[in-house]
Amino acid sequence: MLARLTGSLTALARLLMVLFEGLTSLLWLIAKGAITFVTGGKAALLPFFTAASTQGKVFACLRAFWPNLSLKAVFIKAYDNSGTAVVTRHDDCLDVLNRNADFEVVYGTRMRKLTDGENFFLGMQPGWEYNRDTSAMRLAARGPDVAEIVLPRAASLSQEIVDKAGGKIDLVPQLSLLVPWDMTDQYFGVGGEMETMQDWATVLFWYLFEDLGADPELDAKAMRYAAGMRDYLDAAIAERKANPDERPQLLNRCLALQGAGTPGMEDLGIRNNLLGLLIGAIPTISKACCLALDELLNRPEELRRAHEAAKADDPVFEQFIWEALRFNPHNPVIYRRAIHDTVVAKSTLREARVRKGQMVFAATLSAMFDRYQIEAPNAFRTDRPWEDYIIWGYGMHTCFGAAINKAVIPAILKPLIARPNLRRAPGAAGQIDSGGTPHPQHFHLLFD
Ligand code: HEM
Predict the structure, then answer these.
(1) CA–CA separation, 320 vs 442, rounded Å?
(2) Nearest of 395, 376, 400 to residue 323 by alpha carbon
(3) How far, in Å, is the centroid of ligand 1 from the Cα of 401?
């Protein structure tokens, strides 16, 4: 009886907290939005609404008052759809990302334009082709490689770069883009020319996942870059076949699988799989490093504790990174399209109908702040279980590079954060400069 009463009181307190948070977030959005508009004009509203802190407030309102939103408005022009649904509660987001028979990945049409033919596995629904390609690529990218090859290289290279930087660094070109590119060069075996590959991968990632308005200029650029990447990969595969070697690289492993008659590992299959991996690997790790560090720089006390942990080589250091990415994630949402009319949050007060063709935004940023699942969600804590983090997808399409990310992002940031007095360069240079793209281009920092 007492336990039931305590349970009901806890549930009521939580509901009140959710409603209070929703209301205060709404007031914050109105006040800040108005100030932003008055001081910066219309142009200032886009950066305001795309900032993770603003999105967090929007999602807090939605979780409180309208957790599953279904609209006729079309927000994504790059992929066919008939409207938009936004899902904000933790369990509902995971449900959407798990229900492959109801909600499909949409990227296939653009993936095929990049490969000039076949789909890549992130654009596929469950089935033989998805299993064929992911199985083969998991044989090529073996689990132990991360600890044995990828991590030691990323750690020593990052340390060397920071040691030689002389107290100032432009994070993006000097470190956060360079290290993942180096991984594609040394471990994938298909790095190509550094700046060209970084540029290709960044633009193609933007085209696939972030070109919400379907910009024709970006389309034309992506077609040129994809052709460049295909030609480069075709030549790299042919060259390696002509001059084989034994290095533990994805390219060599793929060719060995080809020699063993593995389905999907013809030259074209290898090329398309490596193309998808290159696009996924380079800009993402770089952006995640920038966002995590930006968040820590905004939190001097947490930065100080992260610095102590980095200096002491304490494993808790990584928790600072994951927590920073919870507040400022690379992917605040993941989108799917409804295959038929269906519902989310069935049989609950928040049940919502979703129509066939609607694009469904699973707001993973929101899910990570859902008080019904995440303890003290607004607190920056370094003792959270890994399951609280949805920072590179969920379900069948969870990031192929998850183990790499978990090792490489801390390896890149640790030598920098271990430096005393890490700080932003003065003025605009010390803020992330994305140069009008969704991806950081510069981020100048100083340290002692
Ligand atoms: C911090 C860095 C990264 C982030 C934030 C990230 C994010 C994501 C997300 C959110 C998804 C799921 C997309 C969806 O469900 O629609 C995904 C899938 C994927 N990622 Fe990553 N990614 C990162 C790094 C990498 C790396 C290093 C690689 C390559 C080694 C990679 C390759 C892939 C591939 C191939 C998939 C598709 C997996 C599948 O369909 O089974 N990503 N990533």
Answers:
(1) 22
(2) 376
(3) 6
Kindly give the number of the ligand 1 atom that is closest to the alpha carbon of 330: 5
Indicate the pTM of the whole model.
0.96
Helix (H) or strand (E) holding 84: strand 83-87
Nearest Cα residue to 67 out of 6, 18, 12, 128: 18
> Cβ distance 298 to 291 under 8 Å?
no
Roughly what angle, to the nearest 10 degrees, separates helices 267-297 and 128-140? 70
pLDDT per position as a tens digit, 326-340: 999 999 999 999 999
Distance CA 381, CA 172 (A): 27
Q: What is the pLDDT of residue 227?
A: 98
Q: Residues enclosing ligand 1, CB less than 6 A?
A: 105, 121-122, 134, 276-277, 280-281, 284-285, 288, 330-331, 334, 392-393, 397, 399-401, 404-405
| Cα–Cα distance, 153 to 156 (Å, whole number) | 5
CA distances from 199 to 38, 181, 225, 272, 288 (A): 36, 11, 9, 18, 17
Q: CB of 274 within 8 A of CB of 190? A: yes
- Assess contact for 64 and 29: CB atoms under 8 A: no
Kind plus residue range of the DSSP H or E element containing 224? helix 216-242
Pairing of strands 358-362, 83-87: parallel
The helix, strand and coil proportions of the chain, stated in percent and rounded to the nearest 5, come to: 60, 10, 30
Scanning 41-170, the segments in alpha helix (DSSP H) are 45-50, 52-65, 90-98, 108-115, 128-140, 145, 151-164
Q: Is residue 6 scored above 90 in pLDDT?
A: no
> Residue 396, class by beta-carbon neighbours within 10 Å (0-12 exposed, 13-18 middle, 19+ buried)?
middle
Paired residues of 336 in beta bridges: 360
